[in-house]
Amino acid sequence: MYKGRFRDCERSGKTSKKSLQRNTKLDKIRTESQNESQGVHTLCPTRWTVRGEVLAAVLNNNEELMELWEWSFGVCKDTEMKARILGVQAVMTKFDFYFGCSLGIQIRRKTDNLSRTLLRTSLSSCPGKSHRTGRG
How far apart are CA 119 and CA 42, in angstroms? Predict the structure, then answer.
């Protein structure tokens, strides 16, 4: 379930960012609604330390994204993109999506923090080893 919700968030980000017109409209909707949370951004599979932020951004901008999907469906002429918009919109209205994203945010915050800590250049395994063996 969690993996599927993560993929849904990825699709949501790609669909909103794929078109400059949709991206501009989303920014306008966010400004009108005075949403001060971080904007929606696409998920980069190679950046492991920001996945929790992607999930949180989609949930924090849920109302704005739903309004964007309504607007995009009326404006878009490409049938394949209309089908994608309807699919993303349908998925985002289900409880499974909300629950999976909420759970994913909690899990990813922990793993993102762990990843950032382990990637620090100031972290060394030598002090940890001396504490473990009792030498030092």
Answer: 23
